[in-house]
Metalloproteinase inhibitor 2 (Hucho hucho), 184 residues
Amino acid sequence: MTRYVSSCFFTLFVLFLWRVEDIADACKCSQPHPQKAFCDADVVIRAKVVGKNAVSNAIKYDIQQIKTFKCPDQVIHAIFTASSPAACGVTLKINKEYLFTGKLETGRMYVTLCGYNPPWEDLSAAQKNSLTHRYQSGCDCKIIHCTSLPCPISTTDACLWMDWGTNNGQNLACIKSDGSCAWK
């Protein structure tokens, strides 16, 4: 009987390890360029996290909205995210300010790990300036993220982003001028 129990335990252990790997790999995405995140979002705001509550299978962060960069005429009082990083949930710190880019669904703002939600203090001066002056004007352009060479680009309405391990490209904005898009 002990051999049978040991065999069952070993089988369950192997299955558990296999399942843990699946869960750990559940949320895979690369960080978008700040302009792409801005253009793809329904809502872009600067806000301070003031509270946190578990709501069914989500986390609700109560926020104090400081500035609106892009939003359909409403004040956001809470941000919702999945309950775990494996499900692309964002972990935020209370009393810290963030830039939030998210989707608006049934009057609620949702953010994910695949979005762009950095602490406000981590943004460069160029990024903060682009939030009010440049990103919106470049939403007609596509930002193509190049992860390996060669990086072909065959259209004039796109900018090639090759930010391999540096943050330099995140300080630029892809703007359309004279019919074609270019980094500025």
Observations:
- Strands lie at 43-55, 58-70, 78-82, 97-105, 108-110, 142-145, 158-161, 174-177, 180-183.
- Confidence is low (pLDDT under 50) at residues 5-23.
- The domain at 36-122 is CATH 2.40.50.120 (OB fold (Dihydrolipoamide Acetyltransferase, E2P)).
- Residues 88 and 107 are 20 Å apart (CA to CA).
